Amino acid sequence: MTTTTEQASSKPASRRRGPYATTPARRAEIVKAASASFAEHGYERASLRDIAARANVTHAALLRHFATKDDLLLAALAQRDLDDAELANRIMETKIPREKVLSSILQEEFAHPEHLRNWLAITIAATNHNHPAHDFFISRRAKMREHFTSKKLATTEDSQELSADDKVTMVMAMVDGLRIQFLLDPERETLHLMDTLMRFIASPDGTLAGAGGTQPESEPDKTTATGPLKQRPGWRYEVPTKSTR
Which of 12-21, 36-45, 52-61, 236-245 has the highest mean pLDDT? Predict the structure, then answer.
């Protein structure tokens, strides 16, 4: 005769089921849905109900994972960062020239203009100190500066004209600027400018000549009514004339 305890122990253990069994995978699905919703509608207009529908979960289930849309935004931005890092590593593993790494990353971004437009919109909105993503972007900038001052991108040394910090600022400004220029005029070729800047950054003396390129010849100094006006290579200027009145 078997006891109740023995009968219970002889049964195969049932597989545990419940909300915790698939939490990481479900959270990942929700974050992916949120990224798609933000890209289509923008952060302000995206709704939690739309995100829940895209993730195939109920609104109540979504709230068990993410209490607010702000939480979802930060999770989506963090995932974007991880995706960017993976893309950069994949590109660098191809052994392309060092100065072409950033232009190759931008080229991948340009293949998804709506995602890029939404990323820039959130970036600009986050310049407001009260924006939920403000601290995220401040931290991200700090990490980017740390990365760009590594020897991988040759921005770690001061040159004759620029400090290492100046170089990093120029690189970051160029990246943001080319993103905007692409969205404004997708037909215009601009990625070669990123390569040129990176060669300039890597040159020992901080000049295009030192990077193996050539500098445009400067014109003689012009003089205005208020004194000399020096021409910088690549800049245009007009000498102001006195009014005839």
Answer: 52-61
Closest CA to 122 of 134, 113, 109, 138: 134
Amino acid at 79: Q
Specify the pLDDT at position 206: 54
Q: Do the Cβ atoms of 183 and 190 come closer than 8 Å?
A: no
- Between the two ends of the chain, the Cα-to-Cα distance in Å is 121
Q: Is residue 36 helix, strand or coil?
A: helix
The better pLDDT of the pair 197, 162 is held by 197
Question: What is Dmax (Cα atoms) for the chain?
Answer: 121
Q: How crowded is residue 42: how many other Cβ atoms within 10 Å of its Cβ?
A: 14
Token pair belonging to 31: 């974050």
Strands (E), the chain: 222-224, 227-229
Phi, psi of 222 (to 5 degrees): -100, 160
Q: How far apart are CA 81 and CA 72, in angstroms?
A: 14
Higher pLDDT, 56 or 19: 56
Question: How many Cα neighbours within 13 Å face the side chain of 25?
Answer: 5
User: For 120-134, 144-158, 202-216, which range has the lowest pLDDT when averaged over its residues?
Assistant: 202-216
